[in-house]
């Protein structure tokens, strides 16, 4: 398993090698690596890639929305729209990448403890690429609080605050 640590790979004063430079901006976690961290599987694995990860602080994930996903069978016929609860769940899975790697969580799984101020700003439809930025606001006594924002083509689709508790 690839692991991301908070240890720097080179000193700040050093310039990255050409190989390191070519790696900048690439995927931090593939779908296979995400599955090593999270228990979610088809049809509920909702993150295809983590493109940015700052240990203990934030992550950016993406989901390619396709018409072949099972929720579009009934939501909504002839006008498929990704259910808002699945957008929130996708943001929660990005949060899981952050939370499961906090040293104080011992790799435990997290479950929702609350959802606050979630707002849906635009529909997400097949063909969209959903980008989800999640920032850790706090983690205390087994509870995490994150701010999430999901966008499509730079336009906010959903945003809000999510709370999690350690699930042992």
List the helices and strands and how they pair.
Blueprint: H1 18-23, H2 31-37, E1 49-54, E2 58-64, H3 84-99, E3 109-120, E4 129-140, E5 143-152, E6 155-167
Antiparallel strand pairs: 1-2, 2-4, 3-6, 4-5, 5-6
Instruction: Write the CATH architecture name.
Output: Roll
What is the ordering of alpha helices and beta strands? HHEEHEEEE
Structural class: alpha+beta
Shape: globular
Relevant CATH superfamily = Hotdog Thioesterase
Low-confidence stretches: 1-26
Largest sheet: 6 strands, antiparallel
- Count up the helices: 3
Number of strands: 6
First-residue to last-residue Cα separation: 22 Å
- Which fold name is given in CATH as the topology? Thiol Ester Dehydrase, Chain A
Strand-residue fraction? 35-45%
| Percent helix range | 10-25%
Total domain count: 1
Strand order of the largest sheet: 1-2-4-5-6-3
Rg from Cα: 17 Å
CATH class: Alpha Beta
Mean pLDDT reading = 86
Keywords:
17% helix; 3 helices; alpha+beta; disordered N terminus; 168 residues; Thiol Ester Dehydrase, Chain A; 36% strand; 6-stranded antiparallel sheet
Protein model, in words:
A six-stranded antiparallel β-sheet has the order 1-2-4-5-6-3, covered by helices on one side. The chain starts with 17 loop residues before the first helix and ends with a strand. The chain has one domain: Thiol Ester Dehydrase, Chain A (Roll), CATH 3.10.129.10. It contains three helices and six strands, in the order H-H-E-E-H-E-E-E-E. By secondary structure, it is of the alpha+beta class. It has helices at 18-23, 31-37, 84-99; strands at 49-54, 58-64, 109-120, 129-140, 143-152, 155-167. A hairpin with a 2-residue loop joins strand 4 (129-140) and strand 5 (143-152).
């Amino acid at each position: 398993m690839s692991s991301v640590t908070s240890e720097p790979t080179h000193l700040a004063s050093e310039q990255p090698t050409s190989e390191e430079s070519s790696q900048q901006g690439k995927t931090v976690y593939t779908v296979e690596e995400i599955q090593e961290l999270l228990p979610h599987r088809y049809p509920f694995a909702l993150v295809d890639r983590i493109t940015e990860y700052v240990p203990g602080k934030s992550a950016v994930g993406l989901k390619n929305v396709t018409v072949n996903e099972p929720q579009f069978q009934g939501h909504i016929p002839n006008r498929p729209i990704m259910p808002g609860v699945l957008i929130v769940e996708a943001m929660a899975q990005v949060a899981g990448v952050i939370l499961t790697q906090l040293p104080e969580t011992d790799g435990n799984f997290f479950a929702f403890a609350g959802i606050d101020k979630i707002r849906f700003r635009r529909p997400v439809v097949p063909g969209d690429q959903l980008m989800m930025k999640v920032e850790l606001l706090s983690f205390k006594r087994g509870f995490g609080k994150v701010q999430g924002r999901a966008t499509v083509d730079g336009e906010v689709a959903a945003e809000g605050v999510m709370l999690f508790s350690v699930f042992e």
